[in-house]
Amino acid sequence: MGGGARELAGYLLALGGWVSALAAAVLPQWRQSSYAGDAIITAVGLHEGLWMSCAAQSTGQVQCRLHDSLLSLDVHIQTSRALMVISLLLGFFGIIVSVVGMKCTKVGEEDPITKSRIAVAGGVLFILSGLCTLAAVSLYATRVTYEFFRESSVPINARYEFGSALFIGWGATGLTMLGGSLLCCSCPPKERRGQHCYRQSQPSTAREYV
């Protein structure tokens, strides 16, 4: 795979991961009612996310309510919120920086070395974004798992388990970090740098002899 094609593939993967992370941050299904156990309750399904909690009835009606107070939320929700916001900001800057550094764009094409370094910087931003998403999702999943097994006095079907947003977040982490890694491969080797400098010096040498 050529350098330009590799950069384009990495950019598209990272962009897809960033969009998936945005969807995971907005969705309220970070944890949902557990349907394990013998007496399954299906009349109302409860979902909770970083920003709101929802109740889905068997008739199809869904009622959502935003979290009223920020300071009254649990620490793991506040931390996951902050990490997801940082992740989205890093990914947004990575999108802009990567467009400038990619070989398929015309910006700064007179200096390919600097352009490649800019593409690498965009890849690093995407990798950091993926790490923040991974930390946020894993922290929340750890808390859900802890509460599920800690509350032994609560019936199993009244507890919470993983929601779909967690799996979307893990998928977003993989896409973003893979795309960022491909963009980081744009860094030119030292041999190519030397050849580039040598080719630039050849015309002046030839003119001196003429």
UniProtKB/TrEMBL annotation:
The keyword Acetylation does not apply. Its main location: other. Keywords: Cell junction, Cell membrane, Membrane, Tight junction, Transmembrane, Transmembrane helix. The keyword Transmembrane helix applies. One of its GO terms (molecular function) is cell-cell adhesion mediator activity. One of its GO terms (biological process) is neuronal action potential propagation. GO terms for cellular component: basolateral plasma membrane; bicellular tight junction; mesaxon; nucleus; paranodal junction; perinuclear region of cytoplasm; Schmidt-Lanterman incisure. It holds the Pfam family PMP22_Claudin. It is found in: Cell junction, Tight junction; Cell membrane. Coiled coil: none annotated. The chain crosses the membrane at residues 82-102, 118-142, 162-185. It is a multi-pass membrane protein. Belongs to the claudin family. Claudins function as major constituents of the tight junction complexes that regulate the permeability of epithelia. This is Claudin. It comes from Strigops habroptila (Kakapo).
